Amino acid sequence: MTHDTVITGARVVTASGTISCDIGISSGKIASLGTDLTGTEVIDARGLIAMPGGIDSHVHISQPSGPGIEMADDFAAGTRSAACGGNTTVLPFCLPEEGHTLREAVAAYRAKADGNCLTDVSFHLIVKETDPVTLGQDLPALIQAGYTSFKVFMTYAGLALSDRQILDVMTVAKEQNAMVMVHAENEDAIEFLRDKAERAGETGPYHHATTRPVPVEREATHRAISLAEIAGVPLTIVHVSNGEAMEEIMRARQRGLTVFAETCPQYITLTADDLDRNGFDGAKYVCSPPPRTRDEWDNIWRGIEQGVFDLFSSDHCPFRFLDTAGKDAPGARKTFRNIPNGIPGVETRLPILFSEGVVKGRLSLERFAALTATNHARLYGLYPRKGAIMVGADADIALWDPTLSKPIKQADLHHGSDYTPWEGFEITGWPVRTILRGITTMLNGVPGKDAVGQHLSRTAPELLG
Ligand code: DUC
Ligand code: ZN
Ligand code: ZN
């Protein structure tokens, strides 16, 4: 049988280990793994590693961010950047605009995304209202339509839910078999610390970090887990930044609870001191939870290596720096309170983990694949179509050159932001080709021209075990 495409000579990170073999692709699917395969197109991948295409299950694209504030990426830019970083699927969050329902929000996001993407896309929902129509009708209908995960916030005025509301939302997740993702930071504690800091004149970007200290996250993590235990649901704690929050997750698992955990590049490479850079430059690093300390990098690495973390995502949430619709929002130089939260990172997530993890000997290739693709697919209902190189799956593959060394540079990236927090960060190991359902979407850093990404409907979460 002649395939549409054959990739030859790579070390292939398959679902059952790493082997040297050819990959035969037909009609956008992986049709064969073997030797001496033939294809109309032959991709010579000698010296390269074939990984499952990255799945970034935590990104924000075109998300409403308040009056006058605009995210730096639309779906074209965000998914172009993702593809250039070795990704084939992203899962952005769908946040309703003020006064709009979740169903309307989904329709609006679909209208913005469909036909404009260079990766496949599926949406998590953000639940910020708990009225009877949202919980009794819209949310169940959307879950049944394939939006099988949603996020609740314990911080941010207008988004944060009370404990009772979280329990009510979790109850819908239990009835409908959906995954609850929690942003765990205690809003009242942050507000108390913010007021205190502002009274003391501590208003620079650095104080974004000092007013969201570790106990703020640790307490909320403990509470979210307890609420999930009471409601009787599994949950995912997203963007875990420190060892104490991680220990809450480990203790919960020891008690027999099903808790999944995600961390991000910023928590192994940036610190709160980055928020203290010259003048207003620290605003480039303002995100929540904030970057911590070098000691916390060690804690997070311990969690990555020992299996506490299931997911390594970017939390890509891009704003432009020199822009009053971005980090330089009205009032942002007066107080950190007005600086939009979030950093760009969808294109740099995989190279950072590959370089810091695989190349430095902390992670096997298989564990890298699990943390960056397979577990995302399983937990969010995309497996076995996505997340692994195996016969029958979509031909979503990133070819990596493990020896290519060059620093991260804003000039080389494809997001809409005007900076990267990792300017000059040395990387060994870059994706050199990204293939989505058999179609090349990035070659040697150059994105494909055709918006071949599709919307994905998802099934129920598969609880990793
Ligand atoms: N939480 C996120 O998940 N992303 C960006 C900002 C935030 O607070
Ligand atoms: Zn969050
Ligand atoms: Zn996020």
UniProtKB/TrEMBL annotation:
Signal sequence extent: none
Gene3D superfamilies: Metal-dependent hydrolases (3.20.20.140), Urease, subunit C, domain 1 (2.30.40.10)
Ranges of residues in domain Amidohydrolase-related: 49-438
Cofactor(s) it depends on: Zn(2+)
InterPro entries: Amidohydro-rel (IPR006680), Hydantoinase/dihydroPyrase (IPR011778), Metal-dep_hydrolase_composite (IPR011059), Metal_Hydrolase (IPR032466), Metallo-dep_Hydrolases_sf (IPR050378)
Pfam families referenced in this protein's UniProt entry, alphabetically: Amidohydro_1
Swiss-Prot/TrEMBL keywords: Hydrolase, Metal-binding
Domain of life: Bacteria
PANTHER family: COLLAPSIN RESPONSE MEDIATOR PROTEIN, HYDRANTOINASE/DIHYDROPYRIMIDINASE FAMILY MEMBER
Stated family: Belongs to the metallo-dependent hydrolases superfamily. Hydantoinase/dihydropyrimidinase family.
Protein name (record): Dihydropyrimidinase
Classification of source organism: Bacteria, Pseudomonadati, Pseudomonadota, Alphaproteobacteria, Rhodobacterales
